[in-house]
Design a protein that fits this description.
Blueprint: E1 2-8, H1 17-27, H2 33-37, H3 56-66, H4 78-81, H5 87-97, E2 101-103, H6 112-120, E3 124-129, E4 143-146, H7 152-166, H8 175-181, H9 185-196, H10 203-215, H11 222-231, H12 240-257, H13 261-268, H14 272-306, E5 318-322, H15 330-341, E6 345-350, E7 354-360, H16 367-372, E8 380-383, E9 387-393, H17 397-411, E10 420-426, H18 434-440, E11 454-467, E12 473-479, E13 486-490, E14 505-515, E15 522-532
Parallel strand pairs: 1-10, 2-3, 3-4, 5-6, 10-11, 13-15
Antiparallel strand pairs: 6-7, 7-9, 8-9, 11-12, 11-14, 12-13, 14-15
InterPro entries: DDH_dom, DHH_sf, DHHA1_dom, RecJ, RecJ_OB, SSDNA_exonuclease_RecJ
Keywords: Exonuclease, Hydrolase, Nuclease
GO biological process, one term: DNA repair
Length: about 525
């Protein structure tokens, strides 16, 4: 793997910590430092701020309900109806509720035919979505609120807030609670959706997450509190890591393996006992999901190795097909395989009538545009630059696979598939200290589009040891001639330990954090990559 860096600080440079922060802001192309560091509260933003046109379902449903509208939520069954609008799903909604209006949450921008079908049944449609637009917009929709800068829950949050503001004279007895929810529970839910959907934490999405994390301290929703309690992260400040790796996977797991309506019930209930029961059910389903993903990923890795026509070469796009992978987890399998082999990856599984596919990509390759270029083989496709979902007829699989292989060979260069790691700063170890890390905290929250700063340093290995219940993690200690020892943690990299010897000169890429365990503050790094200097 090749290491590169954006800026270099020399030992003789006398930069202050604030100047280093400014350097990082400039390298991230932040034009307005003050607005980035102090984003406005989402309550002060409106849809007009996004330009025309401009846990989402829970936010939108409850806002309408508390304003006195007759409204019912409907969550399509992933396996039986697919994601978003489908004729089968629209028929079910018509039969159950016979609504005058359907408002979508996080889908619909590409569903031209399905929306036209709904209008033939006398149902009006409003679309709220953030996914990539298709060639044609659904013109039969009454209105389209399409904001790519937000997550689906973020769009729903601002849309719901506009509805609330549009009915100032509605007196339902719930207006004070609703006004409060937009700075507490709804904002916390919008931040969960923003982080879970890997939306860049810049602009309005940064406002949602920065203020949403603070909102967790004031939430009243018993279901959300029970998720946090069941996860073992109560009585602490909620972080983007907590949301991305602990809270959101639990909420999503039930929809992947069973029906997402239980997640909605948990987020909406005011009953403590019901919330407790649902939170534990979702926690157990999440464990089942983890085990299923682990087993399926191992199978997928074996399939990848069988695809090698040359022992040293893999196809430029990996296509893996199975009759038994659960369609609710194929996106997770694709993510793991794409990360492991650094290739755009398509994972397909057979359903009753079709093949369902999920795709994940590398940063340099727009997977949704690629799949749309092959739309003649597909029933539908939608997504983002690095993630997509698609469906195809069973008899199109061989033709589709051949087309993917042929087109990818022309579009993807060998250099695109070389793993790279880019650090923000190449910096001597002597410049690393607790004060620097505390100065960097003004850049939080970190996440997609605003990653935690990474550093590239060279030092001498002065110690290493394994830790963890199964000794699967590695801890190393390095220093240079003028620095104190720096502790670096490498998760799930115990296999590196047999390559290490005291006195080795090594290059390391790492992020920094403050370990505040037990009331003490201690500097440490999270190791991203280690390279031996010959």
């Amino acid at each position: 793997m090749k290491i590169s860096f954006k800026h270099e600080i020399q030992p003789e440079d006398k930069l202050t910590n604030q100047e280093i922060v400014t350097l990082l802001l400039k390298s991230r192309h932040i034009k307005n430092f003050d607005e980035f560091l102090n984003p406005p509260p989402p309550l002060n933003l409106s849809l007009q701020d996004f330009g025309p046109p401009a846990g989402g379902l829970k936010i939108l449903w409850e806002t309408l309900y508390l304003l006195g509208f007759k409204v019912m939520p409907y969550v399509p069954h992933r396996r039986l109806e697919g994601y978003g609008f489908s004729k089968k799903g629209i028929d079910n909604v018509k039969k159950q509720f016979d609504p005058a209006l359907i408002i979508s949450v996080d889908h619909g921008i590409t569903k031209v035919e399905e929306i036209e079908y709904a209008t033939t049944l006398g149902i009006k449609i409003i679309v709220t979505d953030h996914h990539l637009k298709g060639e044609t917009l659904p013109k039969k929709a009454e209105a389209i609120f399409h904001i790519p800068a937000l997550s689906g829950s973020g769009v729903a949050y601002f849309f719901a807030k506009e509805i609330f503001n549009a009915f100032p004279n509605v007196q339902t007895g719930h207006a004070p609670s609703l006004r409060d929810y937009f700075t507490t529970d709804y904002l916390a839910l919008a931040s969960i959706g923003t982080i879970a959907d890997l939306v860049p934490l810049t602009g309005p999405s940064r406002s949602v997450v920065k203020h949403g994390l603070e909102a967790f301290k004031k939430i009243k929703r018993v279901g959300l509190k029970q998720i946090i309690k069941e996860s073992g992260i109560e009585n602490k400040d909620i972080t983007p890591y907590d949301i991305g790796f602990i809270i959101a996977p639990r909420i999503n797991a039930i929809g992947r393996l069973e029906h997402a309506i239980d997640a909605l019930r948990l987020l909406c209930t005011n009953n403590e006992k019901k919330a407790y029961k649902l939170a534990h059910k979702i926690g157990n389903v999440n464990i089942e999901r983890q085990e299923l993903v682990e087993k399926s990923v191992e199978e997928a890795k074996g399939s990848v190795l069988l695809q090698r026509s040359d022992p040293n070469k893999l196809p430029k796009i990996l296509i893996l097909v199975s009759d038994h992978w659960h369609e609710g987890i194929i996106g997770l399998i694709a993510s793991k395989i794409a990360e492991e082999f650094y290739r755009p990856t398509l994972i397909l599984t057979k359903t009753d009538d079709h093949y369902k596919g999920s795709a994940r990509s590398i940063p340099s390759f727009h997977i949704t545009e690629f799949l749309r270029s092959l739309k003649k083989y597909l029933i539908d496709v939608g997504g983002h630059k690095q993630a997509a979902g698609f469906t195809l007829e069973k008899n199109q699989l061989d033709l589709f696979t051949t087309a993917v292989r042929d087109r990818s060979e022309k579009l993807i260069k060998d250099k695109d598939l070389e793993k790279k790691i880019e650090a923000d700063l190449k910096i001597p170890l002597e410049k690393i200290n607790l004060s620097l890390v505390e100065s960097l905290e003004v850049l939080e929250p970190f996440g997609m589009g605003n990653p935690k700063p990474t550093f590239y340093s060279q030092g001498e290995l002065i110690g290493a040891k394994l830790f963890g219940k199964t000794n699967n993690h590695l801890k190393v200690f390095i220093k240079d001639n003028n620095s104190l020892p720096l502790e670096l943690i490498a998760f799930n990299q115990a296999d590196q330990s047999n390559k290490l010897s005291r006195g080795n000169l090594i290059n390391v890429v790492y992020a920094l954090e403050v370990d505040r365990w037990g009331g003490r503050e201690r500097l440490r790094g999270i190791l991203k990559f280690i390279q031996f200097v010959l």
